[in-house]
Task: inverse folding
């Protein structure tokens, strides 16, 4: 079987690419996904987020190596394995990042990637239900808006508390400025998740020039004479088969799997590949390097009124919520774990956003056995709220490398979390600010007791709490970075250096991580890539 374009990975980027490139009926497209269709009910119910990680729609085997600066903890790394990828399993937050993030990319020599140049691609995808201005689109496939069918008073108290602690009110952090506090913008429509598969793939999946293969594992990219000509895949227990492409192979498998596939295909650091018995086709030492991710941890309090979400986790209340959702499309099931957000900066980055508060109207108790990705472990007998200080511009860098040449082995993932002192300082300062917000007067009608961190008496005590409770926000980027230096993997058109007909289009191409949740920028990257491919 021969196609014009083969897209590896049906996540956010792959779904956009399949939509845009197949719009020309002359293009014959194959989209390959390792996971299955997005049939799991919890995918489409926003509150079902809690039941997606470590399920059949999650890869399940991605863990960091023991983290030296985080008490040698191995940290779990959720990754969607389903049509829509992580957009089918994430918290649905729509955040573009700081304008200067993209200007930084352009300043590194990546022509065409400044904020003014990428803004049209953000707007192209977007259908914003609530904000109409120069920064937003209303005609795209991806619905974006505020939560309207369920809101707790804790979210309003959080925004007011932030105002009392020096944050400006900001109802559009994706607009004129990012700093300040306000409601989250979500990819939710009519109480249902808007994943990449729902927004971009399903409306066009019946096109005769588009083929979608699910439950299909890509083993490697076939390179002949420095040109990508096809892929080798395996479906179920069937024997491996080769599929050819006339025009391009587009790798959109994410920041862990994309570098892994390049390395399995002989593209990467020559010494590392040879040590595993893989012939090096092209020496690109930057493949898998430059790994960056966001980290957060909880600052939590209990409340004296059952107006949050903890009590909704009781089985009887879940039944009531299910009925309310199915009959009226209202209630606690219409939102994910997040409600509001704030962006600020510490002394480490004067004048530049470097931390984020994710606000959730539940608390995690005062023990360290709660799994932030599994609400079953949360307390249910008393409501509360949590502010999650988030490190946005980490200076620590890590890598992804092969564990073996077996394409079914998970790669080695070594992020080196908190290996740089400045990252610790940002999280400590942001944590102190979060404690100040949690104790502000706006929370007085609700707050019962600050319970997490258990000890706020010193920077050392807060750091220990950080090390015990910190988790990734699962925003890995950078492992196939865009640029011109010797560690760059792709150029400004996202073409792999020195290999014809091969591009990488996903979060791995970001040279530096953006200041916020990464799903919206991936849609933008895919829109821009599709335009370049079609040109």
Result:
């Amino acid at each position: 079987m021969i196609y014009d374009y083969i897209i590896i990975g049906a996540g956010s980027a792959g779904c956009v690419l399949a939509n845009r490139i197949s719009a020309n009926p002359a293009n014959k497209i194959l989209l390959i996904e390792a996971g299955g269709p997005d049939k799991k009910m919890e995918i489409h119910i926003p509150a079902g987020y809690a039941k997606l990680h470590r399920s059949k729609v999650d890869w399940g085997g991605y863990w960091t190596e023991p983290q030296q600066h985080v008490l040698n903890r191995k940290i779990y790394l959720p990754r969607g394995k389903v049509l829509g990828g992580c957009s089918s399993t994430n918290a649905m937050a729509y955040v573009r990042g700081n304008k200067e993030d993209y200007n930084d990319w352009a300043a590194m020599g990546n022509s065409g990637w400044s904020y003014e140049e990428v803004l049209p691609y953000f707007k192209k995808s977007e259908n914003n239900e609530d904000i109409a201005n120069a920064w937003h689109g209303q005609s795209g496939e991806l619905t974006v808006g505020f939560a309207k069918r369920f809101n707790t008073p804790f979210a309003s108290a959080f925004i007011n508390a932030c105002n009392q602690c020096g944050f400006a009110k900001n109802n559009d952090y994706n607009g004129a400025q990012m700093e300040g506090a306000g409601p989250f913008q979500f990819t939710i429509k009519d109480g249902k998740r808007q994943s990449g598969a729902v927004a971009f793939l399903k409306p066009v999946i019946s096109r005769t020039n588009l083929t979608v293969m699910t439950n299909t594992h890509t083993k490697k990219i076939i390179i002949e004479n420095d040109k990508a000509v096809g892929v080798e895949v395996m479906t179920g227990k069937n024997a491996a088969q080769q599929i050819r492409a006339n025009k391009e192979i587009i790798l959109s498998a994410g920041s862990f799997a994309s570098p892994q596939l390049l390395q399995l295909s002989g593209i990467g650091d020559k010494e590392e590949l040879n040590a595993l018995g893989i012939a090096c086709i092209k020496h690109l030492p930057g493949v898998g390097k430059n790994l960056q991710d966001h980290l957060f941890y909880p600052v939590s309090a209990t409340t004296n009124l059952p107006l949050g979400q903890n009590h909704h986790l009781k089985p009887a209340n879940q039944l009531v919520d299910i009925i309310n959702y199915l009959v009226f499309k209202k209630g606690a099931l219409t939102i994910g774990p997040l409600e509001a957000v704030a962006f600020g900066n510490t002394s480490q980055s004067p004048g530049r956003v470097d931390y984020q508060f994710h606000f959730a109207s539940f608390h995690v108790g005062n023990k360290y056995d709660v799994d932030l990705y599994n609400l079953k472990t949360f307390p249910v007998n008393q409501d509360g709220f949590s502010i999650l200080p988030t490190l946005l511009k980490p200076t620590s860098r890590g890598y992804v490398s092969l564990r073996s040449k077996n394409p079914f082995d998970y790669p080695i993932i070594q992020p080196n979390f908190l290996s740089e002192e400045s990252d610790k300082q940002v999280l400590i300062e942001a944590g102190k600010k979060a404690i100040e917000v949690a104790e502000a007067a706006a929370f007085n009608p609700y707050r019962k007791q600050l319970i997490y961190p258990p000890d706020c008496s010193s920077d050392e005590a807060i750091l220990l709490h950080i090390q015990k409770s910190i988790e990734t926000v699962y925003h890995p980027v950078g492992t196939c970075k865009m640029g011109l230096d010797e560690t760059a993997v792709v150029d400004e058109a996202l073409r792999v250096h020195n290999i014809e007909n091969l591009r990488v289009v996903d979060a791995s191409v970001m040279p530096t991580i953006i200041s916020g949740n990464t799903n919206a920028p991936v849609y933008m990257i895919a829109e821009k890539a599709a335009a370049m491919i079609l040109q």
